[in-house]
Amino acid sequence: MISLRYFLLFLLICYSGILQAQLTVSGTVYDSSKINYVENVRVVSTGGMFSVTDSLGHYSLMVNEKDSLSFFYNNKPTQKFSVTAITDPRAFDISIHIPVKGKYRALKEVIVYSRSYKQDSLENRETYADIYDYTKPGIQTTMQNGVAGADLDELINIFRFKRNRQLKAFQSRLEQQEQEKYVDHRFNKIIVKRITGLQSPALDTFLVHYRPSYEFTRNSTEISFNQYILDAFYQFKRLFSYTPAKKEEH
User: Fold this and answer.
1) Per-state percent for the chain, helix, strand, coil, to nearest 5
2) How far apart are CA 176 and CA 213, in angstroms?
3) Residue 210's pLDDT is what?
4) pLDDT in tens, 154-198
5) How many Å apart are CA 171 and CA 115, to the nearest integer?
6) DSSP of 186-198
7) H or E segment at 41?
């Protein structure tokens, strides 16, 4: 019977072999018009690595020569692209068959917001459920024919250090983005302007200077949060010597 030490050594040798012949593939993802960038597209390799496109549709991913790439948008994958068939790994641009829609549309001079913060948050958590639920791999046991044994997938994942760091970093990034969006949702121009009467550019300065933390925003009631905005406005007037612009008389 092979000892655990030799088994782990075997896994390390296999893992070191996987790391050979790696290269970086990067490019841009466009929508069906081949003009608009597509954000939050997951680029996944068969080797287990992944990346996510930024606001300009750009991605960059470390792969092995024998890998294939798939692009996922709203959990729907494209065909697989073999790395060996990519002529220029530094500019592998693709177009996916979707139109990019903005969150705002004009309707007789009325701005219609298509989604709420809560809808966006729930959809984001559903799309990236595997990332939000990620936990550091450890040795676990499984039952086969009534006999307990080590979970081989979890054991292998322990040694996939780069993958684990990438997953943890992405999880932190998603959580940070969600927190920032929640603060944006409660501390926005419309609410601040209604309470303080500030106009741009003073309004823009106020939003930056007095932006509250996520913890305070999450734990504040509507009354206490509005009071914070009002108190901050009084301080803003003293520190910045702000006086409202007088309306011109006609």
Assistant:
1) 45, 20, 35
2) 12
3) 94
4) 555 555 667 667 777 777 787 888 888 889 988 998 889 989 999
5) 23
6) HS-HHHHHHHH--
7) none
**pLDDT at residue 233 tops 80:** yes
**Residue 136's pLDDT band (boundaries 50, 70, 90)?**
low
Q: Looking up tokens 């823009």, which residue turns up?
A: 204
- Look at the pTM and tell me if it is higher than 0.70: no
Q: Which fold has domain 21-100?
A: Immunoglobulin-like (2.60.40)
Considering only CA atoms, which of 228, 203, 231 is closest in space to residue 215?
228
The pLDDT score that the predictor gives to residue 1 is 43
Please report, as a single letter, which amino acid is at residue 199. Q
H or E element: which one contains 78?
Answer: none
Give CA–CA dist 62/82, Å, rounded.
14
Q: Taking Cα atoms as reference points, which of 174, 172, 235, 186 lies closest to residue 215?
A: 186
Domain boundaries, the chain: 21-100, 102-186, 187-240
Which of 83, 105, 79 is CA-nearest to residue 92?
A: 83
pLDDT at 97 over 50: yes
**What per-residue string of b and e applies to 183-208 under the rule 16 or more CB within 10 Å gives b?**
beebbeeeebeebbebeeebeeebbe
- Mean pLDDT over each residue of the chain, to the nearest integer: 75
**How far is residue 66's CA from residue 47's CA, in Å, rounded to a whole number?**
9
